[in-house]
């Protein structure tokens, strides 16, 4: 009996609510008609009241009869406030809710230090850290009681193995892969001019080699992805002749084959047809106005051995320039298979860029961004150990890419096995990005990730290129200052015990204790127990997970 009464009461409430909603819209309609009548007979000033009332009444009527949004059917007119608040939620969160140190993907402290360094202002913090230094996962670098002076010139890392005839000296921090198409022309121009001013490298991303990459003469790492944009045949295959012709350009210092990307490993990218204008179509060798889909796999290889051979072919076509590949690590066994293929073929890349799962992208499925791929710390250490264990580490330089924005980030990645670092989103901050997270909509408010000329004009190349140069210079100087406080003058002197992590409220361990570090050639002689199964199963002729 009580249940029946409950159902009847609920039904009565629903009916009463429906009556109220219809009554409210009816009152709005009557008021608007009354205001129109007054405007017609009492004077034109009544239109000031009549027009808004008419709009509200029309909106209410439409909300009641539409079938797409339940909220609007139940709450005509007022329901639009929900959509308005939802639209501005990221801005409200960023400006009024989040604390200085807990924003995502980058917190306010990190964004501020990038902005300040880009502008050339002091990046100082009063009153001490806001971070919880006793929280699990807190990391600290070990300073020395006998600090040293940093060297006068920032260090450079020579990229070029035994088969490379045109080695390149890489900076500690460089512009990571971001394509023309994903970024505006002005953003590409600013990044490249900044690289030219500062003497560091600019990775083109997989979107092809555009005139914006070449105009200011900055050093380029030309990245080739699964779509082979800028060096593809009409059916989407790799065009050797076009690749060789473009790789010969003086500005191209290195060439890189992209296997996977941190934010979306295992899938290809999509550039919507609306962004594929005539210029982008020409740069990428694709039809204008049609969505460009990068396949998740490469056509040029299907086994580790074929991958290694293709790297050798790319280097030959590029005239001996440094050649390597980029990946977000997934299977350790598969990477060990690539190492076995290198040993069997006697061929090694000149560099490998390790991207972390925390890396950024213009657009990716949420499931991939949140749940696929290994974070940079574990990925970088695994690749370093695999190369060391197979005796190949001294022939291959390692780059680290994934949320590198400060000097401390650089030093941590060097401790974990990298030789140099790349930054993408931090460089975007330097050219004006405000983390609006509208990259995929073509409506970037600062002109960084858009092909809309009206929005892109907001980004002034002459000003933003100086900010890119200043940010890179100040961040590398910060890394050198940190190393000097650790008693270290050069990156090669850093060791795993110099970085520590709190693992619980009562224990702090160094990276030398947290991770195993393989000795040179150890996998070839006596693999450690936790590596033995993967090493035995790794097949240079198959990608076996």
Automatic annotation (TrEMBL):
Coiled coil: none
Superkingdom assignment: Bacteria
Gene3D superfamilies registered for this protein in UniProt: Aldolase class I
GO biological process: glutamate biosynthetic process
Keywords per UniProt: Membrane, Transmembrane, Transmembrane helix
Glutamate synthase domain span: 173-488
Protein known as: Glutamate synthase (Ferredoxin)
Organism: Amycolatopsis mediterranei (strain S699) (Nocardia mediterranei)
């Amino acid at each position: 009996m009580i249940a029946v009464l409950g159902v009847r009461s609920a039904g009565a409430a629903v009916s009463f609510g429906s009556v109220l909603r219809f009554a409210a819209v009816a009152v709005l309609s009557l008021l608007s008609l009354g205001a129109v009548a007054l405007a017609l007979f009492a004077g034109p000033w009544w239109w000031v009241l009549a027009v808004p009332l008419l709009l509200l009444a029309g909106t209410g009527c439409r909300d009641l009869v539409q079938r797409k949004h339940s909220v609007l059917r139940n709450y005509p007119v007022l329901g639009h406030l929900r959509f308005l608040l939802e639209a501005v939620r990221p801005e409200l969160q960023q400006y009024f809710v989040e604390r200085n140190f807990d924003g995502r993907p980058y917190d306010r402290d990190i964004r501020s230090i990038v902005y300040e360094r880009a502008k050339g202002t002091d990046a100082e913090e009063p009153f001490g850290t806001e971070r919880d230094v006793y929280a699990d996962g807190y990391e600290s670098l070990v300073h020395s009681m006998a600090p040293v002076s940093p060297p006068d010139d920032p260090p450079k890392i020579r990229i070029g193995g035994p088969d490379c005839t045109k080695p390149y000296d890489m900076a500690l921090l460089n512009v990571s892969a971001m394509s023309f198409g994903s970024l505006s022309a002005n953003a590409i121009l600013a990044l490249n001019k900044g690289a030219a001013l500062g003497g560091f490298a600019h990775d083109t991303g997989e979107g092809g080699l555009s005139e914006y990459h070449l105009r200011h003469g900055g050093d380029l790492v030309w990245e080739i992805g699964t779509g082979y944009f800028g060096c593809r045949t009409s059916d989407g295959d790799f065009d050797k002749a076009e690749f060789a012709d473009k790789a010969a350009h003086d500005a191209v210092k290195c060439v890189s084959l992209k296997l996977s990307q941190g934010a979306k490993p295992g899938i290809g990218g999509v550039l919507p047809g609306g962004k594929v204008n005539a210029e982008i179509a020409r740069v990428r060798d694709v039809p204008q106005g049609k969505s460009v889909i990068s396949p998740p796999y490469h056509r040029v290889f299907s086994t580790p051995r074929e991958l290694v051979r293709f790297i050798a072919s790319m280097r030959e076509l590029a005239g001996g320039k440094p050649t390597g590949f980029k990946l977000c690590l997934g299977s350790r066994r598969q990477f060990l298979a690539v190492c076995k293929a290198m040993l069997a073929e006697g061929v090694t890349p000149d560099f490998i860029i390790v991207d972390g799962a925390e890396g950024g992208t213009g657009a990716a499925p949420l499931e991939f961004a949140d749940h696929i791929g290994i974070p940079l710390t574990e990925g970088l250490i695994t690749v370093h150990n695999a190369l060391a264990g197979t005796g190949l580490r001294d022939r291959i330089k390692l780059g680290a890419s994934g949320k590198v924005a400060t000097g401390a980030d650089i030093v941590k990645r060097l401790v974990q096995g990298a030789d140099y670092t790349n930054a993408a989103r931090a460089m975007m901050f330097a050219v004006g990005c405000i983390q609006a997270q509208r990259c995929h909509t073509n409506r970037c408010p600062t002109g960084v990730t858009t092909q809309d000329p009206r929005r892109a004009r907001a980004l002034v190349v002459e000003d933003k290129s100086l900010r890119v140069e200043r940010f890179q210079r100040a961040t590398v100087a910060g890394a050198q200052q940190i190393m000097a406080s650790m008693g270290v003058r050069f990156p090669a002197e850093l060791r795993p015990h110099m970085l520590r992590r709190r693992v619980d409220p009562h224990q702090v361990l160094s990276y030398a204790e947290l991770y195993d570090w393989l000795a040179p050639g150890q996998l070839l002689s006596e693999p450690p127990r936790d590596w033995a199964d993967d090493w035995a199963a790794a097949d240079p002729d198959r990608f076996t997970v």
